[in-house]
Amino acid sequence: MPSNDDASSNGATLASGPFSGPEEFAQLIRQAIEAAAREGWREWVWSDADFADWPLGERAVAEALQQWSSAGRRLTLLAERFDVFERHHARFVHWRRMWGHIVDARVCRGAGLPAVPSAIWTPTWALRRLDAERCRGHSGTDAMGRRALREALDECLRASREGFPITTLGL
User: Fold this and answer.
1) Which ranges of the chain does DSSP label H, i.e. alpha helix?
2) For 107-117, how does the pLDDT look when each residue is reduced to its tens digit (9 = 90+)?
3) Sheet of strand 118-121: strand arrangement
4) Which end of the chain is more exposed for a tag (fewer CB within 10 A), N or C?
């Protein structure tokens, strides 16, 4: 189980250290979203191939995202595909429709493009799943680890295009 380290200038704590297993991974995501709401994080990046096993459809997560939402905030979503959201994360989809102006959803998929990491990046804390199949990874405040993750994310973002529209128009 990860230990707690100071993860923000506001003094709140988030887990730091290795994690293993889907429940521990999901709990770290919940804690990060709660911390963002509590501390008013300005920017962060969520990244995953498809977000299928993230707890984004949960009521508590939607409520924390609603508390976090305000002008001047920015959430970047990066994925290979977003098709899972409509089926598994309905509450998140509803929240995104209301707050689409603070969410930038990007798709990075194709031959020769970098693999999308499974991660959360903030200026003060990061979580990275290194083995998605077994849900193993690391979280913490390490500056070098955050910088390396941000570089990997930036590489994907440079190769990305807009994705996950707020509404789907049909003919």
Assistant:
1) 22-39, 59-68, 84-88, 90-98, 143-158
2) 999 888 999 99
3) 3-6, 13-20, 136-140, 126-131, 118-121, 43-48, 74-79, 103-107, 161-162
4) C
Pair of tokens at residue 88: 């598994």
Tokens of 171: 């003919």
In the structure encoding, which two tokens stand for residue 142, read together?
């390490």
Reported pTM = 0.88
**Ordered structural domains, the chain, with CATH:** 13-162 (3.30.870.10)
pLDDT digits (tens, 9 = 90+) for 125-149: 999 999 999 999 999 999 999 999 9
Both tokens assigned to 150: 């941000």
Contact 62, 54 (CB under 8 A): no
